[in-house]
Design goal:
Blueprint (H helix, E strand, L loop, with lengths): L1 E5 L4 E7 L5 E6 L6 E7 L7 E4 L2 E4 L4 H9 L1 E2 L2 E2 H7 L2 E7 L4 E7 L3 H13 L5 H19 L2 H13 L13 H5 L3 H11 L5 E7 L3 H13 L9 E3 L12 E6 L5 E8 L5 H19 L4 H8 L8 E6 L4 E8 L3 H14 L8 H18 L3 H13 L7 H7 L2 H11 L5 E8 H8 L1
Parallel strand pairs: 3-11, 13-17
Antiparallel strand pairs: 1-2, 2-3, 4-10, 4-11, 5-6, 5-12, 7-8, 9-10, 14-16, 14-17, 15-16
Helix pairs in contact: 1-7, 9-15
Length: 433
């Protein structure tokens, strides 16, 4: 077992890769009453095309999310109820590239840990339960289809991405969900829920040897699990956008606009994290609530307090999204483009501002390390992305003003921008007339 000590922030991590390939991390938080666990597979919504031991498979969209739902249902009932009886709060989520099962508890830790591992490792699917779940998820999809914010987001993503499955909702579509069978579920579970494709992270006050031995004994009892040769088959995605402009008409009272800036993906883990942090600092300097540009747009009525922006950096894609409610979407878009051009000729990326930003981010980061939930979820995320949560301060300190300039000027390229305008349905009638 490897012990990693981070003396500067007084954190200790114990790590071991078990014989079956499962990675286990124990993050010691002495004196904490609550324990928090995540059990995560590197399998998400974009993994719909893959090879297993040389055989190619194309499965319906939404199957990772569908599988997440079904893992809580066993022959003898709903596992949620068992967690509740054991004094634990359990949950799960699916993203583009991972599915995570988690629980927190202050009592009966090993009983709940066994329940979590058994739940994730032992699937139970029948034709009847799959058919019932299809109906449940179909209703969930229909509900989201009626949500204006959801529609605006996915229409914008669809304007940017041509082939990459990121443009498809994590829950799938009504047609794709109806195609899912129990055989699909068993195939994907056997393929991606293999211990060598998973990571177990435990945060709390532990007897380290006892906790690690408990997990080892549980995994050893599973017997010999053959390793699989799995190859994900993601389509190549060029940077060019699909459709620069799009109007969406729904039953809404106000007009909203979303801009998307598509970026190239980065293969290097460290550079990807550097760009992500640099973009966070840079976008805040330009569009944050303390910036002159934000204040001017607000004063002129170009934006309101709904205005927000975000940079999304993943292994297989990267983009910026900006959105606001506005009476004049054309003026908003025009103003954003003017700002992008303006910052190329002004020294708004200043060292003093960056130093203050770093202090604020590091302060929030250190405060968050008091939360077992934050540590477990973020350690999982950064580990699977090829980073180390506890080395984040080092990367933050290394970010320079030049890094910000280099990344933000490339990212905010109007050539790779899309505009999606959500308008009231009656405006479509007026436009048609």
């Amino acid at each position: 077992m490897r012990h990693i000590e981070y003396k500067e922030i007084d954190e200790n991590v114990y790590q071991e890769t078990l014989d079956n390939g499962l990675e286990v991390f124990i993050i010691q938080k002495s004196g904490y009453n609550k324990k928090f666990v995540t059990y995560t597979t590197k399998y998400g919504s974009i993994d719909n095309h893959f090879k297993v031991n040389g055989k190619e498979h194309q499965v319906p969209d939404g199957i990772a999310h569908f599988l997440e739902h079904k893992m809580f249902e066993k022959e003898d009932g709903d596992v949620f109820d068992l967690f509740a009886k054991g004094g634990a709060n359990a949950n799960a989520f699916t993203s583009y590239d991972r599915t995570s099962y988690l629980f927190s508890t202050t009592e009966d830790f090993y009983k709940n840990l066994t329940l979590l591992m058994d739940m994730v490792e032992k699937p139970y699917f029948t034709e009847e339960t799959v058919e019932r779940e299809i109906g449940i998820i179909n209703e969930e999809i229909k509900m989201y289809q009626d949500n204006p914010g959801y529609r605006l987001y996915f229409d914008t993503i669809g304007q940017m991405y041509d082939k990459l499955p990121v443009k498809i909702d994590i829950a799938g579509t009504l047609p794709s969900i109806s195609e899912i069978t129990k055989d699909h579920l068993y195939l994907c579970h056997d393929t991606f829920y293999h211990p060598s494709n998973m990571v177990l992270i435990m945060v709390g006050d532990f007897d380290i040897d006892e906790a690690m031995d408990f997990v080892k004994d549980h995994q050893d009892a599973r017997g010999n699990i053959k390793p699989l040769d799995v190859k994900r088959l993601l389509p190549y995605e060029q940077r060019d956008v699909v459709k620069p402009k799009h109007n969406l008409y729904l039953d809404v009272a106000e007009t909203k606009v979303m801009l998307g800036f598509k970026n190239e993906k980065i293969d290097s883990d460290k550079e990807r994290l550097t760009r992500d942090l640099a973009m966070m600092f840079g976008l805040d300097m330009v569009f944050g609530e303390q910036s002159d540009y934000y204040y001017e747009m607000l004063e002129q009525g170009i934006i309101d307090d709904s205005f927000n922006f975000a940079h999304n950096e993943e292994k297989d894609f990267a983009h910026i999204l900006m959105t606001t409610q506005t009476d004049d979407p054309e003026k908003f878009t025009h103003t954003i483009l003017e700002i992008i051009e303006d910052i190329k000729n002004k020294d708004i990326f200043e060292e003093d501002k960056l130093i203050n930003q770093k202090r604020e981010v590091l302060g929030d980061y250190l405060s968050s390390l008091n939360s077992p939930e934050y540590i477990a979820n973020q350690y999982t995320k950064y580990h699977l992305d090829g980073y180390d949560l506890y080395q984040l301060p080092e990367i933050i300190e290394m970010i320079t003003v030049d890094d910000i300039k280099n990344y933000i000027f490339d990212a905010l390229d109007p050539e790779y921008m899309v505009e999606c305008v959500l308008q009231p349905e009656d405006e479509k009638v007026s436009a048609d007339d």
